[in-house]
Amino acid sequence: MLRKIAIRKFLLDSSIFFKISGLFVFALLSFLGFSFYFIRDQTEQEHIREELRYRYFLRTLAPIVRDSGDLSVVLQYLDEFGFALATDPKIKNQLINTNKLPPIVQGIFAKTLKIEDKIYILLETPNEALLFKYSPKYSFANFYLVIFLVVALLVLMLVMIFKALAPLKCLHSSIKKFSNGELDISCRLEQKDEIGELAQEFDNAVSKIRALNESRMLFLRSIMHELNTPITKGRLISAMLEEGVAKERLTSVFKRFEVLIKEFAKLEQMNAKAYKMHKREFLLDEVVNEAKTMLLIDNDDQIIVQSHGDLIKADFELFALVLKNLFDNAIKYGSDKKVYVKSVRQNLYVSNRGDPLKANFVEYFKPYFKEDNSQGFGLGLYIIKSVLEAQKFGIDYVYQDGFNCFIISDCIVENR
Question: What is the rounded CA–CA span in Å between residue 325 and residue 383?
Fold first, then answer.
């Protein structure tokens, strides 16, 4: 059973070129095997026919030699049967010495000898002894020609198929580059078959996506540029205000705007697969402090870290963005406006006190999801899920003892 499964898996995983080569070898060996047995059968049939021909010759030769007494008649009969004069002294002497005739005997006498497929006849007269030989001619030239032509045709078809399928490797390479976010590719083919049409359509799709991506990037850059201008002016105006609560709040708001624009740009790069992931090991406390900075939180009592010294391996900036959004949601919707962070084995728990989620957890991953005015995460969990999936992490949710627990799985590499 395991052997059958292994063979099936091997056949499914093998490339199309390997399968075609295997099919060609099978067809070639099958044809050669059939040809071998066919020619062998024809050879055996020829041997049988020659044997029957030889027996018939023996039955008819004796009466002709005995009754005609004319050497020319016997020679004509031998010629019709395909006999030709032979000059083999050893065979000739052997036949002469076999049943040697007395000198007084007159007339024509015939002696025969068969060696493998060759038939020898010695005609003796009182004056001379003539040796004749018959060699059957098995002509299989036509069969060999057909075999050669069929093999040549199979090889030619294999070469043509490989030549037609060769662009698939180029197409596969282009698709692989495209899946990695590279849009500066071209895979136009000159051939007019289905593969050429497929490559043409793929090239057209890449061109359209490239144009749309360039348009989107231009649009986003324009928006961010237009947003940066009023934010910069706002910060300059707030800096000119007298020290006080109003100045502090305005400065905090404009800083938050700047952070959000940077996050937006980073997320767009990641979605466009233009962001290069840089995974490294860092402490949990480091990334929590970075998330606090991004949230502009000065009150350390709002974020309570219950595990210290844990080692995480991820992209630091993206992981800080995830924690920043989780912290923001936890503080915003928590009953005590606090967030609790701890590690359990290789998982990181981010929790807050409050009522459980009303909708299915999967629903919150939808962009712009809003349950009601009191409970909803907008883009928060959608961003979190996208960033974690890009780093091969998962997120889950449980409600335990009055706490909403959001669990980032397999991000802790070492607990201390």
Answer: 8
- Greater model confidence, 368 or 307: 307
> How many structural domains is the chain composed of?
3
Q: Is residue 215 part of a domain?
A: yes
Shared-domain flag, residues 397 and 336? yes
For residues 205 and 296, membership in a common domain is answered with: no
Mean pLDDT of all residues in the chain? 77
Whether residue 306 sits in one domain with residue 237: no
The tokens 């800096």 sit on which residue?
Answer: 239
Whole-number Å distance between alpha carbons of 174 and 405: 43
**C-beta of residue 343 within 8 angstroms of C-beta of residue 415:** yes
Structure confidence at residue 367 (pLDDT): 65
CA quadruple 343, 346, 350, 351: dihedral sign = negative
Beta partners for residue 124, in sequence order: 109, 129
**16-68 and 71-81 helices, crossing angle to 10°:** 170
Q: Hey, what amino acid is at 75? A: L
Say yes or no to pLDDT of 245 above 80: no
Residue 218 parent element (H or E)? helix 194-240
Q: In angstroms, rounded to a whole number, what is the distance separating the alpha carbons of residues 95 and 126?
A: 15
- Domain CATH for 326: 3.30.565.10
The DSSP-derived string for 124-152 is E-SS-EEEEEE------HHHHHHHHHHHH
Mean per-residue pLDDT for 37-58?
78
Whether residue 22 lies inside any domain: the answer is: no
Determine which of 268-272, 399-403, 405-409 has the lowest per-residue pLDDT on average: 268-272
Q: Are 234 and 250 in contact (CB under 8 A)?
A: yes
Instruction: Give the C-alpha separation, 390 to 383, whole Å.
Output: 11
Clarify whether residues 217 and 94 are in a common domain: no
**231, two tokens:** 């934010």
What are 100's two structure tokens?
A: 């040697």
Query: Between the CA of residue 365 and those of 194, 317, 370, 378, 395, what are the distances in Å?
Result: 40, 21, 11, 9, 11
Cα(402)–Cα(342) distance, integer angstroms: 16
DSSP state of 356: P
Identify whether residues 284 and 409 lie together within a single domain. Answer: yes
- Cα separation, 30 vs 27, whole angstroms: 5
Tokens of 211: 């144009």
pLDDT at 376: 44
Longest CA span, the chain:
159
Which of the four pLDDT bands, split at 50, 70 and 90, describes residue 283? Answer: very high
